[in-house]
Amino acid sequence: MKTLILMAFMLFSVVTFAQTEGYKVGDVVKDFSLKNVNNKNVSLADYKDAKGYIVVFTCNTCPVAKAYQNRVAALNATYTVKGYPVIAINPNDAEAVPDESFEKMQALASEKKFNFPYLLDPDHVVTKQFGATRTPHVFILNKTDKGNVVEYIGAIDNDPEEANNTKVDYVKNAVNELSLGKKPVISSTKAVGCSIKWKKG
Description:
- This protein is 27% helix and 21% strand.
- The protein is an alpha+beta fold.
- The longest helix has 11 residues, at 2-12.
- The termini are far apart.
């Protein structure tokens, strides 16, 4: 697993990560409604008491996404009670990668006992709105009077293999700062992971 993660990191560290489309830090996010693995639709508006959201674009098969599954669950366990729940979205096309099917998503969520929604974005509509390009790719939103504002975009941390002695927990730090009424010191990083598998045509 660690070799696969390292290979993915090396491969995607040499490509351009600049986000040319989709939301930028400071933008207000449009709400969405996507099907969860329990067959019920989930939207941001469902979380009446939320102070914000940790939106994670992830998937079933990417080695980097797999390496972060437990960390995503830990983020939800820590920050839901503080008002920042995790909402995970699978952006991949199941026709391109059959193991990304909704049924496989349900199986994974059951096996890993996901404690957060795992939503299907079958036509990439929400994925393109956000401008996600990798799995995992994180967008932290802060609920304000003008709407849900993007406050951070990028990686969960700088330690895919959990072997970095100078680890920086980007998402944890950003949410902690928002919880104190501050803007994140680091608001953008490179999302390192597998490219999203888009529909053909």
